[in-house]
Amino acid sequence: MSSLAISVDRVSKVYRLGEIDRRQFFTDAARWMRSLSSNGAAGAQSGSPDLFWALQDISFEVREGETVALIGRNGAGKSTLLKLLSRITAPTRGEIRLNGRLASLLEVGTGFHYELTGRDNVYLSGTIMGMKRHEIRARFHEIVEFAGLEQFIDTPVKRYSSGMLVRLAFSVAAHLEPEIFILDEVLAVGDQQFHNQCIDRIKEIVNDGRTVILVSHNMSYVRRLSQRAIWLQKGCMVQFGPTKEVVNGYEAASSSVGGQRTHHDGSQRASILSWRLVDGVGGEPNVLARSGSACAFEFALHAAETLQSCRLDVRLSDLDDTPVFSATHRLAGLPEGSSALVLELPSLPLQPGQYRLQTRLYQRHEEVDVWHCDPMLVVSGDGIPPDRSREGMINLESRVSLQRSPTT
Q1: How far apart are CA 274 and CA 160, in angstroms?
Q2: Under a CB-based contact definition with an 8 Å cutoff, are residues 270 and 368 in contact?
Q3: What does DSSP assign to residue 158?
Q4: Is there a contact between 238 and 229 (Cβ–Cβ < 8 Å)?
Q5: Alpha-carbon gap, residue 323 to 56, rounded angstroms
Q6: For residue range 319-358, what is the model confidence (pLDDT) as tens digits?
Q7: Contacts for 72-78 with beta carbons within 8 Å, 24 or more apart?
Q8: Residue 117: beta bridge partners?
């Protein structure tokens, strides 16, 4: 069994809201003295209105050579946890133990001096991470080549774009061989080629037996890069386990946020009221489908009167509103009152992720109702082999065979 690289034991972090000035010195000192006698969090009570608990009672362990992702909505506490792991700030309660040299990339240009050149900042960053000058010199050419900044390496970094900054910062951190590597949304900046380079480099780091902790809002990257994931919500840990299970739960919960109806217009002659999957994945909310499996969507309708010669248009799109599927079905009519329409698909060959469902109801050529369905559809990766590529939008079965060319 591999040894532990990171151990986090009942860690909490509290901040006091408002400005700090000299008049508050004695108040701060009194609070600190009370904490010594009560063994509390700086004398803080969880219900105090001027206190904000960024993290509360977080515990987990990460093995050497493992990649763990932190996921959650903005403000969940992900960046705070990374700062605690990076020892930029200390926990209010609890203990963090690290086994090995750590390199962290938390923000674009973190640790860079903007008046110095790219060359100088490579040496500066390497020194901060504990590297010797000869170690940095031995890797310098590889660092610059990976970042693609040979032409600009002797230019002050204050003239770099944000993309150039993050490329150089990532390259420095990734090539100085830390045992523990921490990344916060580094893949959110830069072009697609750089993203692919980063992913390949992270895979190399993991294969070398090093530990990676990363934060990303892109669930595709999380699925591809991490073995386990931590879901944080309002400073508390909701779930910690295999990436597939945690991400499925997070996406299913996220799809239900935002109210029952996001958009609805048209005549009240008939309305599409709600939708659900006839059979979701293993007890999860009924918006969770399994990639590659048959599924059926059920739409609840209500008609104020009997309608003849109707048509239902359904469109499925990704989060960038790129259509991935559309269908048109004609109906002889809709009865007055409540009814249900069931759309069956023999297979749903989509990659795991969230998708938007839109329905339009017509009577003859007149639009009666349009609805951007809420909640969103979530496709799980259950049943997809772990070595299957996650690139692309659809997940199609394929096979290859080797055939001997006919002799002439």
Answers
A1: 50
A2: yes
A3: G
A4: no
A5: 41
A6: 878 889 899 999 998 999 999 999 998 888 888 888 889 9
A7: 72/231, 72/232, 72/233, 72/238, 72/250, 73/233, 73/254, 75/234, 76/232, 76/233, 76/234, 76/235, 77/13, 77/232, 77/234, 77/235, 77/236, 78/184, 78/215, 78/232
A8: 156
